[in-house]
User: Fold this.
Amino acid sequence: MKDAYITLKLPPMPYYIAIGLTEYSPGEQHPNRQNLGLFDLLWVIKGTLYIGEEDKQWEVNAGETLLLLPDRYHYSVRPCDRDTAFYWIHFDFKGEWMQHEADSASLPLPMRQALENPYRIQLPQYAAPPEFPLAERHLTQLLAYSIEQQKGVYWQEHQLFIELLGLLEVRQDQSTTESPAMRLASKTEAYIRQHYQSELTNSALAQALHFHPNYIVRCMKEIYHCSPMEYLHQYRLEQAKLLLVKTEWSIAVIADKTGFRHAPYFSNCFKAYAGTSPLRYRKQFKP
Assistant:
């Protein structure tokens, strides 16, 4: 069975609902459920949990986790054969999410939009996180908050929950085998963001980064699913959005500040990208 990942596209943030600790004796088993409506994150601390989801089945041992999806059928594969205990966390997520059988390098990285702060959490559906002891301490504290029903712990609960997701998250900066394509695409992105106001061409990027322009284009398309010039064009327009909202500069000045040398061309590009003219876009944010 291939490794499966669940990717949550933020915003919005995942929302913590509840936690519990379940213990089974030999012969007992997890209940069968259909369309729970919430994500169910299991952290096994003792024994083995035999559980399935649709056509997949797992043996989740102590020190391992399993993320069950809200719209699937979950069932017990067989009863526990020894004492088993696990924490479960129910959480909701109203945003866009996807399940995929690939690592994060195969997915296009999101480009930061001007008026958003996007992020993508990638969680392994089944994992043995190396920091499980730390996670267990967080789980113990989270359960204590729940049992004691303490007032004023709302933010502490959500902080612990987010930290638990962080212990599971698969991040590019954790990888010791980051691909050459990822490294060059990241350098290209950084260079574009730093020099987007100037005249940039594939040849200029090649000279600055010391790689053949065709190789730079190939790496950007592999990681970001767009060419360097396409990324540059979109980034310039995102910066224009910010300037339209945050300044009173004229359209001509904003065009020049974002690397467009001719205001009419900038206006045409902006309307094609944002679906409205620069002036109408600005008026949306004026009282």
Observations:
- The domain at 180-283 is CATH 1.10.10.60 (Arc Repressor Mutant, subunit A).
